[in-house]
Structures are given as C-alpha cells and as structure tokens.
Amino acid sequence: MSQTYNVAVVGATGLVGEAMIELLESRGFPIENLYPLGSDNSAGGVVYFNGKSRRVKNVADFDFSQVQIALFAAGADVAAQYAPVAVEAGAVVIDNSSCFRDEPEVPLIVPEVNPERIHDHCGIIANPNCSTIQMLVAVAPIYRSAGIRRINVATYQSVSGGGRKAVEELARQTALLLNGQDIDVQVFPKQMAFNVLPQIDGFDDNGYTHEEMKMVNETRKILEDDDIGVNPTCVRVPVFFGHSEAVHIETREQISALEVREMLQMAPGVEVIDEAVDGGWATPVTEATGKDAVFVSRIREDISSENGIDMWVVSDNLRKGAALNAVQIAELLVQAGL
Amino acid sequence: MSQTYNVAVVGATGLVGEAMIELLESRGFPIENLYPLGSDNSAGGVVYFNGKSRRVKNVADFDFSQVQIALFAAGADVAAQYAPVAVEAGAVVIDNSSCFRDEPEVPLIVPEVNPERIHDHCGIIANPNCSTIQMLVAVAPIYRSAGIRRINVATYQSVSGGGRKAVEELARQTALLLNGQDIDVQVFPKQMAFNVLPQIDGFDDNGYTHEEMKMVNETRKILEDDDIGVNPTCVRVPVFFGHSEAVHIETREQISALEVREMLQMAPGVEVIDEAVDGGWATPVTEATGKDAVFVSRIREDISSENGIDMWVVSDNLRKGAALNAVQIAELLVQAGL
C-alpha cells in the first residue's frame, strides 16, 4: 500500500484554506489524517473532508509533530509565529503568505516553472504571490525560448485576493447601491463596487506598492535572473474571483506571436484561448473561475517595439494563484520523499 | 451685445448628447437657439435646456443652414451621412465619432494639447477617442519636456463608453446575479457584471482591436509625431462612468517623478492626486465622475528602465472623454470666429 501523510491546514476556514482542502480531496492527495487549524476566532468550527466533518483546532495548541506537511493559508503574522514551530516539530511547511518568500534559503516554487527547487528546502517552501504565479506560468516558456529583458504588467485583481471580508464588502456595497442606499467602506480604502482601485497593500519608498514589488522580486527569484526588469501596476477591480493581467514582454531575441501561441499551447498549466473574434478570449467569470489552468489570450506582437509580445493572462487567484499551487508543491514534496 | 450662435446637437438623447447639452448650459456657451436632433427612434422626445423643454427633431429632416455649429454625438454611420450635409449647409461640425478622425484635412483636437489646429478646419473637426483624450492631457506636458519614445497603456474603461444600452446591461446583469438569477448577454460578448472583458470594438489584422489602434493613430496625429510607439490593451471593466489607465511612458530624456508631478500640477486640465498613503489616488467613482479634470495619480519612476515614468490616469469618459472636449472645441471655434 502506498504511503499516506498527515497534513495540517492552517487557516482552514479562510477562502484559500477552504480551496486547499477541496483540492486535497479532489486531487486524491494521499492523506492519512487532515488537521484543519485556525485562530481563536475559527477554532471550534467545522470543515468537511471526504464526506466527514472535522473540527477546526486552535493552531496555538496544535502539536505539529503529528503531521508531515503543514499548509499555511493564513497571514504573514501567523506564518511568522507558527511556521518555525511546525518546522521544529518535524513538519515541512508550505506557506502561502509573503512571510518567507524573500529568504534566500526558502525555495519559492511554481511547479510548472521551477519544480527542481523542491529539493532545496530547509523545512519551509514559499508559495508565490497570486499575480506572480499566473504571470510566470505564461511567461516562463517565452523566457526559456527568447529571453526576457523587461515585463510591463497591469493587473485587474479580484476582491477575493483580499479575503472573505473583501468579497463580502463588494457584495454588500453593490446591493446597497442597486437599492439606492448609502454604502460604507471598511476593507477597501474607497468604494469598491463599480470602481477600480490602483492600490493593493501598502506603499514602498519608490512609489510602488508592496504587491507590485512582490511581482518584481518574486519573478527574479523564481527565474533566478536579477537582470529581468519588471514594472507592475496592481489594481483591484470589482470582480469576485479570478485575476487578469495585461502583460507586455520585451524579449532578448525576436519571437513571433505565432511561435508564442504554439509554445503556450504545449506549455504545462496553460490554456490558450485566442481568436480575433468577438469573445475569443478568456475572462475571470466565464473561463477561469473554478479551473486549474492559466488562460492566455490576446497574444500579439507589440507594434511599438522590435522585440515585444503582448498577452492577456487570466487565472483563478484562489486556485492556481494560491491553493492549487500550494497543493502542487505538496505533491512535488511527496514525489521527492519530503 | 456679444455674439450668440445657433447650435445643433445630433444624438441629443444619448449619453454624450445629454452631457453636451448640460455642458453648453453650465459653461454658459453663447447660444441663441439649441436644436436637439436624433434618429427616427428619438425624434419627438424632449430635452431640457436653460429650464425650457425642446422637442428633438429628426436629423434626416433638419435644415442645417439654420445653425453655425453642429455637435455630432452619434455613431460613425450617422456622422458619415449627415456631417457632409451640415458642412454643405454652412455649419461647422464637431464630430465625436471615429468617422473623420483619420482624414488628413480634419483636425483632431484636444484643446489642452493642440488648440492651434482650430484654424485648419475645412468644416469638420474631430473629437478624439475618450481613451486618447485623457491620456494625452496627462502625457503632452511630459512629451513637450522630455520627448516620448513609447507608451504602454492598459485601460480600465467604463461601460458608459458603450452607450446607454451598455450601462443598462451592467445594471441588469448585476441585479439579476445578486438575486441569484440567470443573466442574459446582449450588448457585450460575455457577462459584464463582476467581470473584465479584454476587447473593445472589433479586431484589426495585427491582433489589436480598433479601440487600441485608435489610441495609436490618434496619439500620433494629435502630437504630430509618427515616431511615437503606442502599445495599448483596452479592457472593459464593470464601472458605470469614468475610464482609468495604467500608463507607462518611455521618455527620450530622463525625467524624475518629482519633475513630472510638478509639471502636471501646473498643466491645464490636470488635477494631481498622488500621495503614497492608503487612498491617496483617484478613482472613477470617488474623484472623476461628473468632474472636468483629468486626474493623475501613482506618478513614479519605472524601476525597470532608465527613462520610464508610470502613472494612473482617470477621467469622466462622457465629459472630458467626449462631451466636454467637444464643447471646448466649440468654444475655441467661437474664439477663432468660426
């Protein structure tokens, strides 16, 4: 009989934790026991796995020596506090927060891009930012073939990236506005319904936001190339699920849109939907939500530069952008014998 | 007593026509008689101007020799049919459609950018595309100071750019979804509510859309510089009013974010809202809708290139992007003696 594992999911009742548990089940991850964990607020609640209910335990009281793998789907503060505890107890941590991503000894893995890094961990593996993951799944094949000098990217990020309260705020504001009532603003700095907000996370000194700098630094780390320039503008849009990106790439060698299209049609994790007809492209709602793939559309040669390629990249931020990528890392771990 | 003019507004009951009439009144345009005109569908309806109701007449039956200025806020087909009739009758046409924009003898005017072109008309002056207008109001001062090699721009365009039926479709789909009901899709190729659609207008052979190529060609014509590269991705977002743009500029000479900020604070038609704090930027809903200015935020030096400047540009697409720009052209015409 093949080996099975005890797995903890920290932040089990959040949007990403929920999706992780659903994916562990649907992908048939070899689980012996699942331990859903949460903070004081969520402990005592119930999640369902393989048809059975499991009570959410308080992460503060949990004995991590019971598990081989701990999936962290909580904030950076929770990861900072409990990931070292889990590692100390012998578990391998896959952390979805930004807490350890910049640490040189922590691999930052997108399984379609740099799976070989799975062998380098010292107990913690970091899951990249959602916007970085989907961009790199689409961009890495081009990088390998033609090299990349620079990436300009403007994002259209859904509110679910901000967690359950952000989803509720968009729904609440929308309903109030359609009923002609005044809205309140709690999660986002300004009205989110029927509006776009050009800020995600706080500001760096250079005028970029932390979310934008994550795309810069994580791209360099994952591709192991500090010469790549990345210039992101990250924007929240009134979409519930699924991030989109207008990606403009400047390659080192010239490459045609046709070559890119053919390359991406063969690329792991990518689905190309790209016809120059009405609706011949992917959107968050109609293609990406609930799907595993990174969808690529609008592939074309940049008419403003010699070596430019434009494309439109869409993916479910809770799945490939978070939970799925983490579960795929867990699958790599199991293949590698932890 | 100062001179007054007879003015026709073609497409008077559309979103842009309505805004034109409101602006002619609020800006105190020297009007003797206003003639609201429409198609068979809207003729017979009523619009209000200076507190009095005016019946909408059928453009097909109108004698344009009665007016000195005809503002066209209808589609390219209506402009193609009736603008020559109006010119023949002696009126000067200001056309908001794309019909004449590419004609070499037709000036394409953004009053803050190239007002001097008012003297060159042969009866028709074209109003640029909404996305082009707001981008150029923000970009022209930088162009004059440091030169521009290329512009990469990703747009976040509101549904009102698609007219009244597009506004109604977003409202209807949103209400149906919030009530758990199935939606229908009529105006947009896919669900617009809580979604983003990376196509506006049809496709060119080069993979860009017509809307994107308008930004390319109109920018070159207005700045009178065919060497400028423009690389747009135009995207419809579920916002009712106000277009936003993530603009990335590659200048010929280096220029700092500080210089750009100071320059734009002095620039005509621009309002800079740019603080590196939560909410320290403009959005369609909270700043731009109903206002005249082009709002510029997120001004920063591109960390991926030597001569790069990024900024976020927001404006009311029905006002500065359409009706206001047309009325400003009419004001220039009056100053120039028609």
From TrEMBL, chains A, B:
Keyword set includes Glycoprotein: no
EC number(s) reported in the record: 1.2.1.11
Residues that bind substrate: 157, 236
Positions contributing to NADP(+) binding: 13-16, 41-42, 160-161, 317
Catalytic site: 130, 243
InterPro entries the record matches: Asp-semialdehyde_DH_CS, Asp_semialdehyde_DH, Asp_semialdehyde_DH_beta, NAD(P)-bd_dom_sf, Semialdehyde_DH_NAD-bd, Semialdhyde_DH_dimer_dom
Listed Gene3D superfamilies: Dihydrodipicolinate Reductase, domain 2, NAD(P)-binding Rossmann-like Domain
The keyword Oxidoreductase appears for this protein: yes
CDD domains in the record: ASADH_C_bac_euk_like, VcASADH2_like_N
Pathway: Amino-acid biosynthesis; L-lysine biosynthesis via DAP pathway; (S)-tetrahydrodipicolinate from L-aspartate: step 2/4; Amino-acid biosynthesis; L-threonine biosynthesis; L-threonine from L-aspartate: step 2/5; Amino-acid biosynthesis; L-methionine biosynthesis via de novo pathway; L-homoserine from L-aspartate: step 2/3
Catalysed reactions, semicolon-separated: L-aspartate 4-semialdehyde + phosphate + NADP(+) = 4-phospho-L-aspartate + NADPH + H(+)
Residues annotated for phosphate binding in this entry: 101
UniProt-listed GO biological process terms: 'de novo' L-methionine biosynthetic process; diaminopimelate biosynthetic process; isoleucine biosynthetic process; lysine biosynthetic process via diaminopimelate; threonine biosynthetic process
Domain of life: Bacteria
GO MF, any single term: NADP binding
Domain Semialdehyde dehydrogenase NAD-binding intervals: 6-121
Entry keyword set: Amino-acid biosynthesis, Diaminopimelate biosynthesis, Lysine biosynthesis, Methionine biosynthesis, NADP, Oxidoreductase, Threonine biosynthesis
Family note: Belongs to the aspartate-semialdehyde dehydrogenase family.
NCBIfam families given in the database record: asd_B, PRK05671.1, PRK08040.1, PRK14874.1
Function summary: Catalyzes the NADPH-dependent formation of L-aspartate-semialdehyde (L-ASA) by the reductive dephosphorylation of L-aspartyl-4-phosphate.
Assembly and binders: Homodimer.
Designated name of the protein: Aspartate-semialdehyde dehydrogenase
Species this chain originates from: Marinobacterium aestuarii
